[in-house]
Design goal:
Helices cover 29% and strands 24% of the residues. By secondary structure, it is α/β, with parallel strands linked by helices. It has a five-stranded parallel beta sheet, sandwiched between helices. Helix 3 crosses helix 4. The longest helix is centred in the N-terminal third of the chain and has 13 residues, at 59-71.
């Protein structure tokens, strides 16, 4: 008899920002699977359960084991930080199921439990940078060729989107954000606000407010748990906050209050 597979987003890391549903399905599950760092985020919720911890580069093995365990009758939670449908495991799970001819109506029950992603958790820390249209890009070229990422950066820059960057750098991947900055400077002023948020809502959280011109000075704050938010032509800073005006003042002639 088949069990059930939950693909669970646990948010930025602190339990205060995990959804009620996420806690509920983790409690219901008898088996937990995930990248070791993500499993550690819910360590206090998984006592007495069977736990399978994986290294970062074992995504395919992780997906297959989750499906096999659920098909054998287990109730499985595949946990990941943020939201599993945003650069997470949801896509790979569905790809693997589809290859096997899975039918959502009468096959293995699968539920995605959404979580707070880095784009909105980081935005909440630094003000209101995502009030208008924005684009989300990953600098990781492990699965997507750098040439395609460059085209997307160029389009987002030309379109004056606020840009949220995931995976901005790693030990082996240095030039991507540097090249992105050069492309952005063709369209945006050097003083365009930039925020670097590392380890949002975790004990290691650090925040740097800078601009495009001075971004290279803060390369030590970049890494796989860092998110970079780059403003557009309307974005400004106020007392270490990044504000992207929604347009209410121009529409309603609102007066600023002291």
């Amino acid at each position: 008899m088949a069990g059930k597979l939950y693909i669970v987003g646990v948010g930025p890391g602190h339990h205060d920002h995990m959804t009620f549903r996420a806690k509920e399905v983790i409690t219901e599950s008898d088996t937990i699977v995930g990248y070791e760092t993500y499993v550690n985020l819910v360590q206090d919720l998984i006592g007495g359960k069977t736990v399978y911890r994986y290294a970062m580069t074992q995504e395919v093995e992780r997906a297959r084991q989750c499906i096999e365990l659920a098909e054998s009758g287990k109730i499985v939670s595949l946990v990941s930080s943020g939201d599993p449908g945003i650069y997470g495991m949801a896509g790979l799970i569905y790809e693997t199921l589809a290859e096997g001819g899975w039918n959502p109506k009468d096959g293995l029950p699968v539920e995605i439990v959404p979580g707070v992603s880095a784009l909105n958790s980081c935005a909440s820390i630094i003000g209101s940078p995502l009030m208008t249209d924005f684009a989300v890009l990953s600098m990781s070229d492990l699965l997507v060729p750098w040439e395609i990422i460059q085209k997307r950066v160029e389009a987002a820059a030309a379109g004056d989107f606020v840009i949220v960057i995931y995976n901005p750098a790693s030990k082996k991947r240095i030039h991507q954000l540097q090249d992105t900055r050069k492309m952005l400077l063709k369209y945006r002023r050097p003083g365009t606000p930039v925020a670097i948020i590392k380890g949002a809502f975790r004990e290691s959280e650090t925040i740097v407010m800078t601009d495009l011109e001075h971004l290279p000075e803060h390369s030590d704050k970049l890494g796989m748990i860092s998110t970079v938010i780059i403003g557009n032509s309307s974005t400004y800073t106020y007392k270490d906050l990044m504000i992207n005006p929604r347009g209410y003042k121009s529409k309603y002639n609102l007066e600023a209050k002291n």
